[in-house]
Specification:
Layout (H helix, E strand, L loop, with lengths): L4 H54 L4 H25 L12 H12 L6 H52 L1
């Protein structure tokens, strides 16, 4: 059976499309979702801090209730600080476009009269995508771990606040 170069190139182009979709998922969609979640956590923590400070100001809780509300405030404040820290955008990503030498070599060979290096170009793109994915996945997992910590802090803060409020009522 003879080698079908057209089918091979079509398969390579499909592999580039799939690699690009995975790359875009990590760079855009997942990052956008995480940033939206962080912003929601910021609003929740700011709301909880405001409510708890109002409760402390407007009521006269007993000694242990003050401690519980204080823990709730500290927990919400810690969640707020972690969320703001995550929005700073300190992460840097290795992108497939950070490898211009191989793409420039392909362009130079093509310009000097050699046959179009379409296969090498597609393989270079696939390799670049493949090299950048571990960094993107590691950054995503780091963000998810911090998001879980923020969610735990906010849950603890909410429960502590509810316990203190119920004890003040009854």
């Amino acid at each position: 059976m003879e080698f079908n170069k057209a089918a091979y190139l079509q398969s390579l182009e499909r592999a580039v499309d799939l690699s690009n979709d995975t790359f875009q998922y990590h760079m855009e969609r997942l990052l956008t979702f995480h940033v939206g979640l962080i912003r929601t956590y910021l609003w929740i923590s700011a709301f909880l801090i405001t409510v708890f400070l109002t409760v402390m100001k407007d009521s006269t809780p007993v000694f242990w209730e003050k401690w519980v509300v204080s823990l709730a405030i500290l927990s919400a404040f810690a969640a707020f600080i972690l969320a703001v820290d995550q929005l700073r955008g300190r992460e840097s990503f290795v992108s497939y476009t950070d490898r211009p030498k191989s793409l420039a070599d392909i362009a130079h060979k093509t310009a000097s009269g050699e046959e179009w290096q379409h296969e090498a170009f597609l393989m270079s793109l696939i390799e670049g995508y493949h090299l950048s994915l571990p960094d993107l996945e590691a950054a995503s997992m780091k963000r998810v771990k911090i998001l879980r910590r923020i969610a735990f802090l906010l849950t603890f803060s909410g429960i502590a606040g509810i316990v203190a409020a119920l004890s003040m009522v009854f």
